[in-house]
Specification:
33% strand, 137 residues, 3 helices, alpha+beta, 3-stranded antiparallel β-sheet, single chain
Length: 137
């Protein structure tokens, strides 16, 4: 369809036991995205839903200490990929060094996978074995 075109599809959901509960379901399709809203047949108002949407699962993005990657490189990398200030990145780098592992952030699955891939690729491009992993929260 055309840019901004809205298509409306309607279907009736008939409850044979109680005609007053009859709803009409309207599907709105705009630019290929489809949403659904149920409207009360008699009032025309949107039906309220008691359904709660679950928050998407979050994933911890972690850095693992090694004996070869320079501390300065880790600080630069934390700023570049996790948006940390130099002071914060230095603190986190020391936590990695002292504890062996640190959580750099909590993200949705797609973002976590992307960060892990970017950090690991960046480390390899610079010939360092720094390892970034992700774990379910």
């Amino acid at each position: 369809g055309c840019e901004g075109e809205i298509q409306v599809l309607q279907a009736k959901n008939v409850n044979p036991h109680n005609r007053q509960n009859e709803l009409s379901s309207t599907m709105f399709i705009k630019n290929g995205d489809m949403t659904s809203r149920n409207f009360d047949e008699f009032t025309g108002k949107p039906e309220l839903s008691n359904q709660r949407l679950k928050q998407p699962a979050k994933y911890k993005v972690c850095l693992i200490n090694d004996d070869y990657t320079p501390m300065d490189f880790v600080v630069v990398m934390l700023g570049r990929f996790f948006g940390m200030t130099n002071d914060t990145a230095t603190e986190v780098m020391l936590q990695i060094h002292n504890n062996g592992k640190v959580i750099c952030g909590l993200y949705s699955r797609d973002i976590a996978e992307t960060k892990v891939a970017q950090v690991n690729e960046y480390a390899r491009q610079h010939n360092f074995p720094l390892l970034c992993t992700m774990e379910a929260e």
